[in-house]
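Running co-folding for zinc ion.
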Amino acid sequence: MYYSDCHVHSFFSSDSKTEPRDHVERALQLQMDSLCFTDHMDFDYPSRYKLSFRLDQEAYFPFMEKLRREYEGRIRIRSGVEIGLETAYQKQISEYILSYPWDFAIGSVHLVGRLDPYHKDFFEGRTVEEAYRSYFEAILSCLETFDPIFDTLGHLDYIFRCGDRSITDAWSQWPELMDAILHLLIEKGIGLEVNTGGIKSGLPFQHPHDNLLLRYRELGGELITLGSDAHTPDHLGDYFIPTGEKLKALGFRYYAVFAGRKPSFLPL
Ligand SMILES: [Zn+2]
Ligand SMILES: [Zn+2]
């Protein structure tokens, strides 16, 4: 049995063209027991970036329900969301998450001060250190602001996919800031996502970096989720086997998969 993938994008995300059925077929080939779609929903994503990241939840749920019935007994299909966290939209985001029957909700920071680190303008007029730090400060203030309306924090050190490699890892650079983030996750019962999505674009580690995973474990953290962030079926479950081995070596024994917002723990 292959690890279940709990971070997957389909044509319900504005940056993917994948028919959900193609992901399901690939998951069956890999012998996954379950697959959780987590399409993007970002409130008020800046129009200059030419993507909307609005999820059409009225179409999404019936579509996923039909797919679930079609594949019943072969694979468990779950309907999740990757919600973009921004403190300015706390009320709308919280209401949105609480209004629909998600199986799983990933909270991810995609914007800091209306800028997306994926684009060059994020880094203009400041040093790499300042730009990177602003990303982690935004995560900390989201964790301080939001109730635990989401289940796991997506791709914690995502910013390392975007800038240069002059800083090796977040834990070595900003230990106090990173400790504050990890402590809040544990305190609020929010999981930490292990996301292998950056490796395909040349990042030498999964999100988050080994040092952060180790620190999280040292602080008593054990609620981890696993996702490839695949936007196409060929990346589904990417690098899960070596990542699972690494997680075991770092002291983790289980990962969580969610249904109806409730975790089940599966052995690594
Ligand atoms: Zn994301
Ligand atoms: Zn994603």
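Result summary
The radius of gyration is 17 Å.
Residues 7, 9, 82, 229 surround zinc ion (ligand 2) (CB under 6 Å).
Job closed.
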